[in-house]
Amino acid sequence: MPAETRASRFVKNGREPADEQRRIRVSFEFFPPKTEEMEKTLWDSITRLAPLKPNFVSVTYGAGGSTRERTHATVKRILGETALTPAAHLTCVAATCDEIDAVIRSYCAAGVRHIVALRGDPISGLGERYAPHPGGYRNAADLVAGIKRLAEVEVSVSAYPEKHPDSPTVEADLDMLAIDVPVVPGILPVQNFKQTKSFAARCGASVPDWLAERFDGLDDDAATRKLIAAAVAAEQVLDLVDRGVTDFHFYTMNRADLVYAVCHLLGLRPSHPSGHAAAAVPLSVAERVRGVG
Hints:
Elements: E1 25-30, H1 36-49, E2 57-59, H2 68-81, E3 86-91, H3 97-110, E4 114-118, H4 140-150, E5 154-156, H5 170-177, E6 186-187, H6 193-203, H7 209-215, H8 222-242, E7 247-251, H9 257-265, H10 285-290
Parallel strand pairs: 1-2, 1-7, 2-3, 3-4, 4-5, 6-7
Helix pairs in contact: 2-3, 8-9
C-alpha cells in the first residue's frame, strides 16, 4: 500500500463533509523599509504573497517609535493599494500614554482596524532589564486596555515560545497571558543560523541541537542554507498541523520565496481568475491510507 506524502494531505479533494475539513489560515509579518531598494523588495514580496489571501498582514514598529512614520506609511499604502487587511504593531517603549494614544488615533483615522499590542524591547537592547516610561503604559496588558478604551479594533498580542525573560516561572507567564483565545504559532524560516542563535540567546530561548546540526558547515553556502531553511520550516508546520494547528503567522523578513514555498506545501494556492482562492484542507482518512499521487 503506497504511503502518502505528508504535504499531499492538504490538497482539497472536495468529498469531505464541511465539518471534517480543517481550513489552513495564514498571516504574514513585514517590517517598514529604510531605503528605496528595500521598499521595492517589500512590495515585490507583498505582491507575491497577496494572492494567497492571508488573514492579515502585520507591520512592525521600531523601539521607541523609531519606525513610527515608516510603519504608518507602509500600513496606509497597504490599505490604499491592496485588498489585504493590515495589522499595525504598537509598543509601550519610550513614550507617554498621550503619545501612544495619538498613534492609536492616527492608525484608526487611516482605516486600521487591527493592532498588534506589544510591550516592546528595552531601549538598551534585548537581554537588558526593561523599565517602563514614567508616563507610559506599563506593559502589553496595560496597552491593550488603553487601545480598547479609545477604539473598537481587533487587538492581537504575542508571547515568548518558552518563557518571558522577565517572568519568574512558566506558571507566572501563563497566569499573565490568561489564554482563552486562539494561539497562533509564529514561523521564521531560518536562513542565518548564527544570527538566529544569538537572537534566541538574548531572548532566553533555547536552540535544539538538531537544528544546529542542520546548518553545520554552511556558513559560506547561502544557497544550501536557504534550502535547509525551507525544509525545516516545512517540517515545523506539518508537525503542527498533525497536532491540530490550522493557523500560522509567518515572519517573512520582507522576502516571499521561502514563505510562499511553505504555504504551497500547506495546500494554499493563488486566487483563481474568478476571485476565489483554492481552499487548503487535509485529505480524508481513507485517502491518507491509500495515498494520492
